[in-house]
Design a protein that fits this description.
Keywords: ATP-binding, DNA-binding, Helicase, Hydrolase, Isomerase, Metal-binding, Nucleotide-binding
Number of helices: 23
Protein name: ATP-dependent DNA helicase RecQ
Bound molecules: adenosine-5'-diphosphate, zinc ion
Oligomer: single chain
Enzyme class: isomerase
Catalytic activity: Couples ATP hydrolysis with the unwinding of duplex DNA by translocating in the 3'-5' direction
Distance between the termini: 70 Å
Largest sheet: 7 strands, parallel
Helix content: 40-55%
Family: Belongs to the helicase family. RecQ subfamily.
Number of strands: 17
Radius of gyration: 26 Å
C-alpha cells in the first residue's frame, strides 16, 4: 500500500497535514529524522504510517519509545480500532501478558511495539531486538517526546540517556525522534545525546493561531482568575496551573464555591483520586482542572477552552507546552497568565537554592529571563514566543488581517486598528489593546539609588517592602529605627503607588538590574547591570497599571 492509501484506508484521513507527507516519505525510505512539531500537529502518523508501510514491505517491526503509560494505552487503543497490530510492553502487564507480547514480537506478528525507555534498554529486551535484527525484522525506532533526553528540556528523564544504545547497537536501523518543544539549546542537546547528527531536521511552525495569549499583572490572583473564568469561560473546560499542592486545593475549592465545576490534581493526591479526576475531566464537559504541572503530558482533550497560570512557569518551553493544551480542536482558546513580583523572586530563588552546578544554573537563569521578557513585553506576545523557538512570525496567508476565530475580538474596531498596525498577530493582549506605557527610567534610578544608600548606611541590604516604604516617605518603625528617613531618597517616590513601585522593581529584576539574596531574607542588591540603568543608559518602559486607567500617572507625560 502506498503511504497515501495507508493514510486514507487505515486512518481514514483525506490528506496529509503540513510536513507529514515529506517526513513520512523520508522515514519510509529509511532516513533518520528529528521532527519538531507543536502539540496536536500530528506527530504520531509520522512514524505510524512508515511502520505500516515498512512492515508491509517485509522490513519487520517498529519499536516506539514513549515515556508515559497513559500515552501508550491511548495510542495502542486507537491503532487497534484502525486494525493495526500494535502492542505495548510496560509495568501494567502481567508476566503472562508480557510473555505473550514477546512471543508475538518474535513471530513478527506485531507492527508497532510501544515500550518505556527503561524497558527498551534492559539486557533481556535488547537480546530480543538482537534476534529480530538478525532476521532483518527490526524496521524502525521511533523516539517520542525526545526532549526528555535533555536536561534543558522541561521533562528530563535520565532513562532516555541510555537510548544511545539504539544507534550504537543497531546502526543500520533508521530512527525518528519527535518532540513538541525544543528551543535551540534543547534541540542541540537532543541531536548530540541521541546521535542524530545525520538525521534530517523537520521543523514545523510552532504557531497556534487560535490561542490568544494574555498576561496580566498579579494583584489578587484568585479573584482575577475568577473574573476571567466568569467573564469569558463559564461552562468551558479549562486547566488552571498552580505551583503548590496547597494552592491547587485552595483554588479548586474557591472555584467550586463560586459555582465553577473544578477538580484538583497533584502528585500528593491518592492515585485513585487522581485517576478519577482525570477521567472526569476527559469525559465530562465543562470541568476545570486545577493542577500542578504533574498534570497534562499526553492528555489529549481537544476542547480545552483555556489554560490559566496562577504562577509563572520556569521557562518559555514550559509555558508553551502547558498553554498548548488549549484549543487542540483549532477553535478559539485562551492562554491566560497572571504574574507578579513574587513569581520572579520565587523562580530565581528556586534556581539559586538548587544543588546544581553553577553553569547549569546559569542556563536556567537565561531561560527564566526569556520568559520574564515575554511577560514584561509591551509588543506582540506571539512574535516573541515564536522568536524564542527560532521562528519569524508571519501572518497566515489564509487569514489576512486576523486569524480566523470563533469569537469576535473584544474591543471592536479600535482593537482592529491596533492589530493592523505593525507586525503583530492581532490575537494577543498587546495586539488587541496596545498597552499604555510610561517611562520609568527615572523611577528605576531612584529605586536603585535607594537600594545603594541603605546598603551604604546600614552595611546590609533590605527587602522590597522596606525600600518602597522609604521611597514613599513612610516613617515606619523599621525606617525610623534604622535612621532611613534621613536618606536623601526618603519620600522622593510619593508620586508612584506601591503597586507601581513593585512594577518598576519587577522589571529591574527581569532585566537583572537588581538581585534578590535568598539567603538573606530576600534582600535587594545592585548588580553589574544596575550601573547602566543608574546612568540612564537603559530605558525602562513599564506598562501602565491596567487596574486604574483613569488616574493617569502624573508622570506619564515625561
Ligand atoms: P501530536 O502527537 O503532534 O500532539 P497527534 O499525532 O496526537 O498530535 O495528532 C493530533 C490529532 O490530529 C489527532 O487527533 C490525529 O488523529 C489528528 N491528525 C493527525 N494527522 C492528521 C491528518 N493528516 N488529517 C486529519 N487529522 C489528523
Ligand atoms: Zn500579538
Amino acid at each position: 500500500m502506498s503511504i497515501t492509501s495507508i493514510l486514507q484506508d487505515v486512518f481514514g484521513y483525506q490528506a496529509f497535514r503540513g510536513p507529514q507527507h515529506e517526513i513520512i516519505e523520508h522515514v519510509t525510505r529509511g532516513g533518520d529524522a528529528l521532527v519538531l512539531m507543536p502539540t496536536g500537529g500530528g506527530k504520531s502518523l509520522c512514524y505510524q504510517i512508515p511502520a505500516i508501510a515498512r512492515q508491509q514491505a517485509g522490513q519487520g517491526i517498529t519499536v516506539v519509545i514513549s515515556p508515559l503509560i497513559a500515552l501508550m494505552h491511548d495510542q495502542v487503543g486507537a491503532l487497534h480500532e484502525a486494525g493495526v497490530k500494535a502492542e505495548f510492553l510496560n509495568s501494567t502487564l502481567t508476566f503472562e501478558q508480557a510473555s505473550q507480547v514477546e512471543r508475538r514480537l518474535m513471530q513478527g506478528d506485531i507492527t508497532l511495539l510501544y515500550a518505556a525507555p527503561e524497558r527498551v534498554t534492559t539486557p533481556r529486551f535488547l537480546a530480543q531486538l538482537d534476534a529480530l535484527q538478525e532476521r532483518g525484522h527490526l524496521s524502525l525506532f521511533a523516539i517520542d517526546e525526545a526532549h526528555c533526553v535533555s536536561q534543558w528540556g522541561h521533562d528530563f528523564r535520565p532513562e532516555y540517556r541510555a537510548l544511545t544504545v539504539l544507534h550504537e547497537r543497531y546502526a543500520s536501523v533508521p530512527r525518528i525522534a519527535l518532540t513538541a518543544t525544543a528551543d535551540a539549546l534543547t534541540r542541540a542537546d537532543i541531536i548530540e545525546r541521541l546521535q542524530l547528527q545525520e538525521a534530517r531536521l523537520f521543523i514545523s511552525s510552532f504557531d497556534r493561531p487560535n490561542i490568544r495569549y494574555t498576561i496580566v499583572e498579579k494583584r489578587e490572583a484568585s479573584q482575577q482568575l475568577l473574573r476571567f473564568i466568569r467573564d469569558e469561560h463559564m461552562g468551558d473546560a479549562g486547566v488552571v496551573y498552580c505551583q503548590s499542592r496547597k494552592k491547587v486545593e485552595d483554588t479548586a475549592e474557591l472555584l467550586c464555591d463560586n459555582g465553577i465545576a473544578a477538580l484538583p490534581y497533584h502528585a500528593g493526591l491518592d492515585a485513585k483520586v487522581r485517576q478519577a479526576n482525570q477521567d472526569r475531566f476527559l469525559r465530562s464537559e465543562g470541568i476545570v482542572m486545577v493542577a500542578t504541572i504533574a498534570f497534562g503530558m499526553g492528555i489529549d482533550k481537544p476542547d480545552v477552552r483555556f489554560v490559566a497560570h496562577l504562577d509563572m512557569p520556569k521557562n518559555i518551553e514550559g509555558y508553551y507546552q502547558e498553554t498548548g493544551r488549549a484549543g487542540r480542536d483549532g477553535e478559539a482558546a485562551d492562554a491566560w497568565m497572571c504574574y507578579g513580583l513574587q513569581d520572579v523572586v520565587n523562580q530565581r530563588r528556586m534556581i539559586d537554592e538548587s544543588p546544581a552546578e553553577e553553569e547549569f544554573k546559569q542556563g536556567l537563569r537565561g531561560k527564566l529571563d526569556a520568559l520574564l521578557g515575554l511577560a514584561e513585553a509591551t509588543d506582540c506576545r506571539r512574535v516573541r514566543l515564536l522568536a524564542y523557538f527560532g521562528e519569524t512570525y508571519a501572518k497566515h496567508a489564509d487569514a489576512p488581517g486576523r486569524p480566523k476565530l470563533g469569537t469576535a475580538p473584544s474591543g471592536g474596531s479600535a482593537a482592529h486598528e491596533v492589530a493592523s498596525v505593525g507586525a503583530g498577530c492581532g490575537n494577543c493582549d498587546n495586539c488587541l489593546q496596545a498597552p499604555e506605557v510610561w517611562d520609568a527610567t527615572d523611577a528605576a534610578r531612584k529605586l536603585l539609588s535607594t537600594i545603594y544608600r541603605v546598603q551604604q548606611m546600614s552595611g546590609f541590604g533590605f527587602g522590597a517592602g522596606h525600600i518602597i516604604d522609604i521611597l514613599r516617605g513612610k516613617a515606619t518603625e523599621k525606617v525610623v529605627q534604622r535612621g532611613h528617613e534621613g536618606l536623601s531618597t526618603f519620600g522622593i517616590g510619593l508620586d508612584l503607588s506601591e503597586t507601581q513601585w513593585r512594577g518598576v522593581l519587577r522589571q529591574l529584576l527581569a532585566i537583572g538590574a537588581v538581585a534578590v539574596d535568598a539567603q538573606a531574607f530576600n534582600t535587594l542588591a545592585l548588580t553589574e547591570t544596575s550601573r547602566a540603568v543608574l546612568k540612564g543608559e537603559v530605558p525602562i518602559r513599564l506598562r501602565q497599571a491596567l487596574a486604574k486607567p483613569e488616574r493617569k500617572s502624573r508622570r506619564s507625560a515625561s
